[in-house]
Amino acid sequence: MAQILGTSLKAIHSYEQGWRTIPHHVERQLLFILSRMDPEKQDVKKCWDIIDCPDERRENCPAWEFNCGDMCWFINGTICSGKPLKDWKTKIALCKSCRVFNHFFDQE
């Protein structure tokens, strides 16, 4: 796990024990890896279809531009809330309540 995430084994232990907060770049990488593990979850609708995104918002969104509406939670600068979210902490908090994100990370 440490090698895949580009961090030390000691850091992984610290995250697991709650001694250190997982850095945003490590969390993002981990979520990406986890999202690719279940082949049955790879066929998901695009975010703009799920949330019925208006054309004017869609056309300014990087998820639309790069045709990665199933990975909108991974892409910085998406405008799901009507404006680009400037930092990962704010963005992932919004994403965690979204059906696109939860398709990959549901607890059931």
What does this structure look like?
The protein is built from eight helices and no strands. It has 108 residues and is mainly alpha-helical. It folds into two domains: 1-37, no CATH class; 43-108, no CATH class.
Top keywords for this entry?
mainly alpha, globular, 2 domains, about 110 residues, about 0% strand
Summarize the structure.
This protein has 108 residues and is an all-alpha fold. It has 2 domains: 1-37, no CATH class; 43-108, no CATH class.
Please specify the SSE layout and strand pairing.
Blueprint: H1 2-5, H2 9-17, H3 24-35, H4 47-50, H5 55-58, H6 62-65, H7 88-95, H8 99-105
Order of helices and strands: HHHHHHHH
How much strand content do the residues show?
under 5%
In quaternary terms, these chains amount to single chain
Q: Helix- and strand-based class?
A: mainly alpha
Secondary structure: number of strands: 0
- Average per-residue pLDDT, rounded, comes to 87
Helix coverage percent: 40-55%
Q: What gap, in angstroms, lies between the N and C termini? A: 23 Å
Tell me, what's the shape? globular
- Radius of gyration, whole Å: 15 Å
List segments where confidence is low: pLDDT < 50 over at least 5 consecutive residues. Answer: none
Number of self-contained structural domains: 2
- Largest sheet, strands/sense/barrel: none
> Total helix count?
8
